[in-house]
Amino acid sequence: MMYSKFVKPAFDDFILPTKKYADIIIPRGGDNHVAVDLIVQHIRTKLGQHDLCKIYPNLYVIQSTFQIRGMHTLIRDSQTTKHDFVFYADRLIRLVVEHGLGHLPFTEKQVITPTGSVYTGVDFCKRLCGVSVIRSGESMENALRACCKGIKIGKILIHREGDNGQQLIYEKLPTDIADRHVLLLDPILGTGNSAVQAISLLIRKGVPESNIIFLNLISAPQGVHVVCKAFPRIKIVTSEIDIGLNEDFRVVPGMGEFGDRYFGTDDDEQQVVLAPPQ
Amino acid sequence: MEKEIDAVMEAASGVHFSGLRLDGLLSSPSASPRATTAAAAAAASSSPQFDSSSSIQQPFVIGVSGGTASGKTTVCDMIIQQLHDHRVVLVNQDSFYRGLTPEESERVQEYNFDHPDAFDTEQLLDCIEKLKAGQSYQVPVYNFKTHRRRSDTFRQVNASDVIILEGILVFHDPRVRNLMNMKIFVDTDADVRLARRIRRDTVERGRDIDSVLEMYAKFVKPAFDDFVLPSKKYADVIIPRGGENHIAVDLIVQHIRTKLGQHDLCKIYSNVYVIQSTFQIRGMHTLIRDKDISKHDFVFYSDRLIRLVVEHGLGHLPFTEKQVVTPTGSMYTGVDFCKKLCGVSIVRSGESMENALRACCKGIKIGKILIHRDGDNGKQLIYEKLPKDICERHVLLLDPVLATGNSANQAIELLIEKGVPESHIIFLNLISAPEGIHCVCKRFPSLKIVTSEIDVALNEEFRVIPGMGEFGDRYFGTDD
């Protein structure tokens, strides 16, 4: 009754004629796994690639899943407890580090498995070190150590002095750093100024540009432009690219001052002054 | 003039000739194709669709069908152009026209080239099977003037990443159909197709309009109605408007690209996910598979790999949208996790994955299932301890090695008996044998499998090869 009175005429008059505007037609609806798979893959491809990745082939954004997006939602929320912030930041950093390690070179290696079969695999690159940009970058050291036992980790401190420029005031790097692949650690890439200074220092120490992998948790497009233009052969691995910088040069939407939130120094009234060590 | 055409159309809606029934035998056109189809279906069910033990990369086979002048060729050309960095071959069903006998040639006007019997389907089948197996094939060259195959020349088609099979009746025979990974039907309105056909045949081929219309009414239209249109129901995707539809072609090309980068089993089962391999992952696999690795290193690298599998698996959980305010005062549109979640480990090996799961999901409930192998004849479940409200939770089922799939199936069956919907189960593996994937995915098509590598096969003792030996013994140090 209902069907013949309303549903069918409405279908014939209004719905069916709109079929001609469809880009594709999926027969059999939800049971058609091939078609659903096709559409999902397509959307994923379209979503997956940030515009910047099309410009800079050495920029890698780790494949987003709802889990990664959920972790980002937590660490970006200003109401998240310090404990949760550290927990989810650590999980995300671990994923960024694993992804970054995937860009290291390799050599082929064959091994015999306990079943007596040959497995053709690869051997890791052994000449490796981490360099963290103090203070935020140090939050990424644990994840790096968890993946690479006994890895050497150097440090660089760049101090912001007023508005006009930044000054490198401390560095302690492995003496043989020129022979190593370097994982440069800094969770936030903002303007890119301090990153450029840190990378310049590494290059002065003899590290080839192409041997540097810069690991971020979030990156601002401005910083990506600055770093990738200055050092086109460096690789950047990040988990999300944000919208931009605000007038205070802070990443938006961002997650605030990462170091303060991670190390729990954000409820202090006064600005924490880092005394240059040594 | 108009009356004439109408008359011709009318006349043609009755019985018409098929390619092989030119000897005056007017057999019922509806009976003969059905008989062929039934026989072919029987043949198809008796022959295996693929050889799971073959380790070669199987080509991706696409069928493109549609009525005459629907834009099939344009769609194929666009696909080929956009897939320029892959090896793509086009096989046209027209190449498999049977040559006409002298008697048939004499009455060529009455020969129906649009009938399924006009094609040598056996040979077409042989061609696609050979190409699919990675061999090259000598495709016949058909001469449309003499209506015979040229005996002096062949077109050599080499094995490729993608095989496109194009033709009006490529979905007609179930055996040919079953070889296709994707079936596309190009759907263009009959009037548009006829207009194109008239233009093509008069302008390009110099025929007069009456003969074109007569031909259309006598053979093309009835064959479309009887054979082409009914085969539309087998299509996975219907492309309206043919070659002008760039979005549809783009969609298909992206899909093929993704599939080409995937393991063969992922092409067959869309719910199998292999985590993206990097040299680091491959390096970790090399270490844990090496029989000479220390126990300490085995555990360390297994744990790292398991953590990646768990993180990937968690990425398949559902979500709800959530907006938060960041410390900079901006709005961030993100997602909220699925909270109703639990792990279930298959004792003993699966327990090695619990730490990684706990490291990612604080305080997660973890149930256990123990399946004890009792001699050769079957398996016995001897222990299970699961959260009471498991039917309301998404379940991450943990077992690092998927071999035959028998114990996995028992565990999954148990979960389903407890009320967990099949689609709420994510099965996490470190390595999976193709046999196990077939076994689990055929039985539980809505379940998701996430694994870090798919191995070659099982050996005669049902152990995964190359594999990594007895995982539990190596991980828990009970192998010496």
From TrEMBL, chain A:
Occurrences of domain Phosphoribulokinase/uridine kinase (ranges): 5-34
Involved pathway(s): Pyrimidine metabolism; CTP biosynthesis via salvage pathway; CTP from cytidine: step 1/3
Domain Phosphoribosyltransferase: 64-265
Pfam families: PRK, UPRTase
Listed SUPFAM superfamilies: PRTase-like
Gene Ontology molecular function: ATP binding; kinase activity
PANTHER family xrefs: URIDINE KINASE
Protein name (record): Uncharacterized protein
Organism, as annotated: Punica granatum
UniProtKB/TrEMBL annotation, chain B:
GO biological process, one term: UMP salvage
Pfam families in UniProt: PRK, UPRTase
Record keyword GTP-binding present: yes
Catalytic activity as recorded in UniProt: cytidine + ATP = CMP + ADP + H(+); uridine + ATP = UMP + ADP + H(+)
Segments passing through the bilayer: none
Keyword entries, A-Z: Allosteric enzyme, ATP-binding, Glycosyltransferase, GTP-binding, Kinase, Multifunctional enzyme, Nucleotide-binding, Transferase
All residue ranges annotated as the Phosphoribosyltransferase domain in the record: 277-478
Cellular component annotations (GO), alphabetically ordered: chloroplast
Keyword Cell inner membrane: no
Highest taxon listed in the record's lineage: Eukaryota
Pathway the protein contributes to: Pyrimidine metabolism; CTP biosynthesis via salvage pathway; CTP from cytidine: step 1/3; Pyrimidine metabolism; UMP biosynthesis via salvage pathway; UMP from uridine: step 1/1
Enzyme Commission number(s) of this protein: 2.7.1.48
CDD domains from the UniProt entry: PRTases_typeI, UMPK
A molecular-function term among this protein's GO annotations: ATP binding
Residues of the Phosphoribulokinase/uridine kinase domain: 61-247
UniProt similarity note: In the N-terminal section; belongs to the uridine kinase family.
Name the record gives this protein: Uridine kinase
Protein species of origin: Punica granatum (Pomegranate)
